[in-house]
Amino acid sequence: MRRRIWEEDHRQHDLVDAILDNSDDDGLAQKSDFNKLVVDSDHNVAKTRRMRWLSQICEYWPLRRLAAITDAEIDTILLSYSDIKPNSKDSSSPHSPGDKVRKPLIILAGSGPGSPELLTIATHQAILTADVILADKLVPAPVLDLIPRRTPVHIARKFPGNADAAQQELLEMGLEALNKGLRVLRLKQGDPYIYGRGGEEYAFFREHGYTPMVLPGITSSLSAPLFAAIPPTHRSVADQVLICTGTGRKGAALAPPPYVKTQTIVFLMALHRLSSLVESLTGTILKDQASDAEHNKFPWPINTPCAVLERASCSDQRIIRSTLQHVVSAVEEEGSRPPGLLVVGWSCEVLKGTGGLRWAVEDGFAGFGELMSGPNEALLALENIPTLSKVNIAL
């Protein structure tokens, strides 16, 4: 591609020289720049423009897409390249010459449970085209690796006791970027509206005159059980699913849900207080030590199956299958691998159990097998969509 672009530059230069050599001094069809002095710096400018263009193409297009590029596609790229004037503002950008000036836009997007393959197409486009990205601390590295090198990324500085301050800092950074006319991507783990404070952020930006675009993500509360072979609903076993947090505001304990045999509960943000959570669920916490919120009038049996699911869909995914009686000991012995969640209910043993052990550990994620390997027409079609170089999600 570099050679073809180099030839394109010099072909244009040689063509001008040939026209000048063969033209009559008295010709009437002379251009306005006929007497313009041509110096070596003109060639350097063209070379710089050429290399910027090529580097942007390489940055925006996936490696697999670049490796499969055809001569016909190179011709299309060169046609777009030739149409851009050296002094135009878009000379270093791979976006099409006719693109409209973008308006400031805030996007709230979910990055899914962890694997980049589980991103939606819309969120992938938002990652590639954002001017600034504000990401949650728990967004996995493979997803962050998709961000172009030129894009500034700010990771939330959230830690116990600083969550609210870090959240406010991100909101102010996003508002500052919007006021400068930039496109801001607020990249969240899972889904923005499932314990992602997406509703709060939507209201904040709307109050300041910017209505967010919200892109859904695959929530770990439903996908992590799937990767662990746990169907949250199953005929004659579980007919309802409850998604709840294990930690209240300011770290306060929450009222434990009462025992319902046909219910599957998914606890998010709970593993750091797993022991007290299990005690409140099973009613084993001493009454004189329990607050009104922690006291469970309908406790869960200690033999209820449960599972700790960590780093779902990532290569270092881990599953710890156990019961409410032994799960605390299991995590203490095996250690913690955040982010993770706890699933409780009889659906946990429908497809897989512990094999009679107090707990069983499964390490690793097999990925998506043949779906993501070898020739795949659907994937190739996605890589060929024009929005990889021209954004269609602007309002």
Relevant terms:
alpha/beta; six-stranded mixed sheet; 395 residues; 11 strands; five-stranded parallel sheet
Number of strands: 11
Order of H and E elements:
HHHHEHEHEHEHEHEEHEEHEEH
Percent helix among the residues?
25-40%
Question: Rounded to an integer, what's the Rg over CA atoms?
Answer: 28 Å
Query: Uncertain runs with pLDDT below 50, 5 residues or more?
Result: 23-40, 83-98, 385-395
Total number of helical segments? 12
Question: What can be said about this structure in brief?
Answer:
This protein is of the alpha/beta class.
Record the SSE blueprint.
Blueprint: H1 2-22, H2 40-60, H3 63-67, H4 71-82, E1 105-110, H5 121-129, E2 132-135, H6 141-144, E3 153-155, H7 163-179, E4 183-188, H8 198-207, E5 213-215, H9 220-227, E6 240-245, E7 263-268, H10 274-282, E8 305-310, E9 318-323, H11 327-334, E10 340-344, E11 360-363, H12 377-383
Parallel strand pairs: 1-4, 1-5, 2-3, 2-4, 6-7
Antiparallel strand pairs: 7-10, 8-9, 8-10, 9-11
Can you describe what's shown?
- It contains twelve helices and eleven strands.
- The chain is an alpha/beta fold.
- A six-stranded mixed sheet has the order 6-7-10-8-9-11, with helices on both faces. Strands 3-2-4-1-5 form a five-stranded parallel sheet, sandwiched between helices.
- Helix 6 links the parallel strand 2 and strand 3.
